[in-house]
Amino acid sequence: MVLRLDFLEKGHSSRDLEDPLNENEAFALAPVANPADFQKDVFALPGAPAPLEFAHGTTTLGFVFKHGILIAVDSRASMGTYISSGTVKKVIEINKYLLGTMAGGAADCLFWERYLGMQCRLHELRNKERISVSAASKLLANIVYQYRGMGLSMGTMIAGWDKSGPNLYYVDSEGSRIHGQKFSVGSGSVYAFGVLDTGYRYDLELQDAIELGRRAIFQATHRDAASGGTINVYHVKQDGWERYDIFNDVNKLYYKYAEEGMLPAGAITP
User: Fold this and answer.
1) What is the pLDDT of residues 14-65, one digit of tens each?
2) For the chain: N or C, fewer Cβ within 10 A?
3) Strand pairing category for 82-85 and 77-79
4) β-bridge partners, 13
């Protein structure tokens, strides 16, 4: 992929920055009438192998509270029943004030959010100010919308602090973009939401918010086999994000919560 800086020269409009991919950066697509259906058409041919079915699994969450935004994620990478890694970093540090999360295809999320980070930096160089969270999430949504139906798999949150305060957006590979106060994404999100819906309040103190996010991810890893590993927690505040609980092992949390009588209902007590 070639990075061009000619739009920084005088005479180029601001719309050049909003175009996600220029002609030299776009991915090559199948030379057929409808590239989005190319893979399905190929696997439908006589004698073709079975189509590729990707089984994803993860748990990520984010919520806005009075001290900013709390992001918590697990660290397990899996493909169906195969666990490929237990130490994946599922929070992408776009810049000091902006974070993105990974759910779906790790390669898709990592590539496009890193590309988003490059575009955010170029925006800052041109306009002499940081890009807003709204604009960054819109830019990502515009990018992935171009490839809708072509196999991308992304369910990401964009969290950050700008002139308007803390903002949290959900963006997926279909181009959907939603602004909200509380999200959980991934195969374990239904279990995480059970904890979030019970314990979430806007006026949470920082330590209470950290514990809520950590416990929600733990409960999801206990019920969802595709989630697990360790829990990473980030706090987005006015002067940038801060990381907590680096590699907080869910197995150790199991015994901690067992002592406190806070294991999920039906869990085996050690």
Assistant:
1) 444 444 455 556 677 778 877 777 777 888 888 888 777 777 789 999 999 9
2) C
3) antiparallel
4) none
Known active-site residue 81:
no
Written in H, E and C, the secondary structure of 120-172 is HHHHHHHHCCCCCHHHHHHHHHHHHHCCCCCCCCEEEEEEEEECCEEEEEEEE
- Nearest-CA neighbor of 133 among 159, 112, 111? 159
Helix (H, G, I), strand (E, B) or coil at 239: coil
Instruction: Report the interhelical angle of 206-223 vs 250-259 (nearest 10°).
Output: 110
Give phi and psi for 31, each to the nearest 5.
-80, 65
Q: What is the pLDDT of residues 7-28, one digit of tens each?
A: 334 444 444 444 445 555 667 7
Asked whether the beta carbons of 100 and 94 are under 8 A apart, the reply is yes
3-state DSSP assignment of residue 79: strand
- The catalytic position among 58, 60, 101, 221 is 58
Whether the predicted pLDDT of 81 surpasses 50: yes
Record the tokens describing residue 242, joined without a space: 């801060």
Report the residue count for the chain: 270
Cα(250)–Cα(222) distance, integer angstroms: 9
Question: And the tokens for 84?
Answer: 């490929």
d(C-alpha 33, C-alpha 25), whole Å: 21
List pLDDT tens digits, range 218-263.
999 999 988 999 999 999 999 999 999 766 889 888 888 888 877 7
- How many Cβ atoms from other residues are within 10 Å of residue 11's Cβ? 6
